[in-house]
Structures are given as C-alpha cells and as structure tokens.
Design brief:
alpha/beta; 5 strands; 23% strand; disordered N terminus
C-alpha cells in the first residue's frame, strides 16, 4: 500500500519487509528522537547503490495523517537527497510494543 501521488523508489531498493510506503510530506522528526544529525555521504551513496536495508520506524502523530520518525531519521534525510518521494515504514501505534 502506498500514497498514490508520489514517486516510489525502485522495488529492488526496498527492504524485504515493511508496512507501507509513505510520502515524505507525511513524515516528521519524532518528538522523542534525540538525533538530528545530517547523514554522511557514505549513507547517501549506499542508498543510491543498494537501497534501504531496513524500513524507517514510525508512529502515528496525533493528527492521524502524519507519522513521527522514531528510528531512521538519517536514512530519511539521505533518501530525500537521493530523490525518493516515498519511504518504506514499519508502523508502531503503541510505543510499548517496540
């Protein structure tokens, strides 16, 4: 399942397991995620070459239309720099299930 109005990354670039593709405009930095560093060039080149090996871990925001990135903020930024408009995510609705 994916957002229909955004460009998807190539299928071979996606991890083997994820819940859905989500448009980057619906993803935001997780309020409990302390990391805010920018991705290194090696990560950007790795995503260009090999794709994402793991989905971002997200939880629904209170507005119900967006997601907080709780794990994978550097991958999010690197994938945007590669040109992806949708990212694979694993959705956790209850932080106790992590």
């Amino acid at each position: 399942m994916s957002d229909t109005n955004a460009t998807s990354p190539p299928e071979e670039s996606l991890p083997g397991s994820y819940d859905k593709l989500v448009g980057i405009e619906r993803l935001q930095h997780g309020e409990y995620n302390p990391r805010q560093v920018r991705p290194q060039e090696e990560l950007i080149e790795s995503i260009k070459r090999d794709g994402l090996q793991q989905p971002l871990v997200v939880r629904p925001a209170t507005d119900g239309d967006r997601y907080h990135v709780t794990d994978g903020w550097q991958r999010y930024q690197a994938a945007i720099r590669v040109g992806w408009e949708q990212l694979p995510v694993k959705i956790y609705s209850n932080h106790w299930t992590l």
